[in-house]
Amino acid sequence: MLLLIKNGTVINPGDKTQQKADVLVEDGIIKKIAEKQSVKADKVIDATGCFVMPGFIDMHVHLRDPGQEEKETVETGARAAAHGGFTTIVAMPNTKPAVDNADVVNYVHHKAEDVAIVNVLQSGAVTVGQRGTELADIEGMVEAGIPAISEDGKSVMNAQLYREAMTLAVKYDIPVLAHCEDINLVNGGVVNADEAMEKMNFPGIANSVEDIIIARDIMLSKETGAALHLCHCSTKSSVKMVKLAKQEGVRVTAEVCPHHFTLTSSDIKEDDANYKMNPPLRTKEDVEALKEGLKEDIMDVISTDHAPHTAIEKGVGIKHAPFGIVGLETAAALTMTELVDKGYLTMMQMAEKMSYNPAKILGLDKGVVEEGKVADLVVFDAKKEYKIDPENFWSKSKNTPFAGKKVKGEVQATIVAGQVVYENK
Ligand code: DOR
Ligand code: ZN
Ligand code: ZN
Predict the structure, then answer these.
(1) pLDDT in the model for residue 334
(2) What is the spatial distance between Cα 233 and Cα 230, in angstroms, rounded to a whole number?
(3) Is any ligand 1 atom within 6 A of the Cβ of residue 277?
(4) Residue 398 alpha carbon to ligand 2 centre in Å
(5) Among all residues, which ones are annotated catalytic?
(6) Domain residue extents for the chain
(7) CA within 20 to 30 Å of 126's CA: 59, 106, 342, 397, which one?
(8) Secondary structure tally for the chain: helices H, strands E
(9) Would strands 419-423 and 228-230 be described as parallel, antiparallel, or unpaired?
(10) Domain 2-51+374-423 - what CATH class?
């Protein structure tokens, strides 16, 4: 099977090169990258005016499978990923039951093999049932193939237990993906703690809720040597702490989600739970610090925290609805519109933060466009303008604050191991 992607601009973060070239793929492997290849291929994609990039890798999605399949499944989540240009996604363990043993890991991986059109990797919970009291079977889950451990959805509040988990993460050479939230400090908050939100009578979540656990986890990483990856950073202090930790040689990386660099709490004009996520939308100052942090490569990764919920659950208003928004099908366009187009990131940095860096952190042989490597690719039209319409999402859920937003940058094709899993026709 021969696939030829013609006339595109190939971006390879592996050697930081960008060149006009055709990409020839044979049996799932990139065979040749060169100009004007005239080969009789089984399938040709015309990438004129587009970038050919390494397929995006999302280190942070919620697939709700097992247990809440009305929101999303392995199959629909993978379809949403393909539609968004993602070729690999990492699923968080806060399912029902939680992914805290090898059986549930195997369930997701086997299901993914059967029905998922992109690569799906399941991460393992840190504690049994994510209850924070005893360690999960991390060794068993490592044997089952988890690429990371994470308690996402919450923090392990017992620092001693978390330190033990980090020691195991060092032993098994996997990263710890940390959701940083001091649950006692949340104190019923539902949005950012600021004046605008007080006026709307919403209880607030202070920056300290995140900052205190980020500081703690950096200390624990320094002590244990564990590779710590900080999920969905939302505060200006988080950027400062990551910068300092890196200067001191701590093994820390950090991610930012598109909603946190696109919106502030002041964008919440009415009681609409599509603006409710955890951590919450912060202030202009925080957003600016996150964007500068991405620009300066202090912040390594753009991930979505794709968190599907049903319209009924989200329809009850900000105070009572669950936290979270979908993100797989808006991430690339928001990154293009808010960061690349506005001069914060180069296209190369976009490819690094959405593919190369996640691959490195997870230890995957992906994230590059090079001969001999697996052909996980995305064809991306950086100039195409359109309005976001949740009705076009392939996800089961439509909970997004970006409905109707004008954006630039559209995925034209997504290729997983040489198979075209999405094409914009
Ligand atoms: O907004 C969020 N939604 N933040 C989280 O930490 C969890 C996630 C979810 O599972 O819905
Ligand atoms: Zn989280
Ligand atoms: Zn999450």
Answers:
(1) 99
(2) 7
(3) yes
(4) 19
(5) 305
(6) 2-51+374-423, 56-362
(7) 397
(8) 14, 18
(9) unpaired
(10) mainly beta
Q: List pLDDT tens digits, range 288-327.
A: 999 999 999 999 999 999 999 999 999 999 999 999 999 9
From the options 3.90.700.10, 3.20.20.140, 3.30.1330.60, 3.90.580.10, give the CATH code of 56-362.
3.20.20.140
Q: What is the three-class DSSP state of 9?
A: strand
pTM score, two decimals?
A: 0.98
* Ligand 2 centroid to residue 280 C-alpha, Å: 11
Q: Residues 47, 7: contact at Cβ < 8 Å?
A: yes
**Number of other CB atoms surrounding residue 364 within 10 Å:** 18
Digit-coded pLDDT (tens) for 72-116: 999 999 999 999 999 999 999 999 999 999 999 999 999 999 999
Do 56-362 and 2-51+374-423 have the same topology in CATH? no
- Distance from the alpha carbon of residue 261 to the mean position of ligand 1, in angstroms: 17
**According to the model, what pLDDT value does residue 236 have?**
98
Is the Cβ–Cβ distance between 83 and 53 less than 8 Å? no
Pocket perturbation via mutation, ligand 1, pick of 278, 282, 306, 318 by most ligand atoms within 8 A of CB: 278
Of 126, 115, 131, 40, nearest to 81 by C-alpha is 115
Give 254's pLDDT tier (boundaries 50, 70, 90): very high
The DSSP call for residue 281 is P
Q: Which two tokens stand for residue 422?
A: 């999405």
Alpha helices in 248-389 (DSSP H): 258-262, 284-295, 311-314, 331-335, 347-351, 357-362
Can you give the pLDDT at residue 5? 98
